[in-house]
Predict the structure.
Amino acid sequence: MTRVLRTFTLLCLLLPQLVNATGQPASDHEDLRLLLKQAIDGADSFKDRFDAEVWLLDMSNRLKPIVKDDKKRLQLLKQIHFEATRVDLPPELVLAVIEVESRFDPFAISSAGALGLMQVMPFWLKEIGRPEDNLFDIHTNLRMGCTILRYYMDKSKGNLTHALARYNGSLYSHRYTSKVFRALDRRWRCIDC
């Protein structure tokens, strides 16, 4: 996509958010603009500043119905993008997994005992010799969850359906993978990502 088209796309996404019914800048969006600027300036997992602007703004708008707080939402998106790209996973896939696993609740606990955003099983902490780590910590949970998903992607030779089923512990069922694919298609997939 050319830079002009990407700039136009960004403006189309930004303007409705920043202008109120009178055509004047909406003062209640000043905080969000400042947070976006800070998030973009500190986003080190993107190819360039423009890619950070487009992705963070787009995904922030998509996540806003679930995570209302602007600051928390942007921090979370930056961390998801960083951890996903660190292990060569599409950040949008990780967003879909989190939506299905925990609905973005960092304190979620499954009936099986999995914890946090990506529902990481606590036995992994002992397995890697870090039993003191906190899976409710967003950074720890995302780092471990993305690493585990990448491992299963490699083990499944890139077969996303199998990798997701392994991640969920439901290798012979497509129920979980179908949920993740639906979330990806409905909310997270983007054209130029």
Remarks:
- The CA atoms of residues 61 and 83 lie 20 Å apart.
- Residues 1-86 form one domain.
